[in-house]
Fold this protein.
Amino acid sequence: MILTALRRGIRKRCPHCGEGALFSGWAHHLERCAVCGLVYERNPGDTWAFTIIGDRLPIAAIIVMIYFGYGRTHHVLGLITFAVLAVVLVWTAPNRWGVGIALHYLSRVYWPDPADPVPTQLKNSPSPDP
Ligand SMILES: [Zn+2]
């Protein structure tokens, strides 16, 4: 269940049903799932902490790694590594945001909030409205 949701997040799919898109275009964050109706981010900033984990920490770790080790002894190699990793990090940003949304979704599933209903309806179950 956790892995399924995370895998869906990496693939930029709704963590609940795996069908709806998380983003329109490259990185425009959608409000809710078009397939199951899951609201991805109930309050603006809800996924912020998870985004920090997925987004900022790897960047910080790389900067520290290069600054304290790599870059000092191998300047050119350090710069090349830094540039390549920067490109990879930017390129995979929507995937990591997807994981952040998936983690946020899991936290809502495991610690349910009555004011924040997670849709129970899955794509194969009968829909109340046609
Ligand atoms: Zn969905």
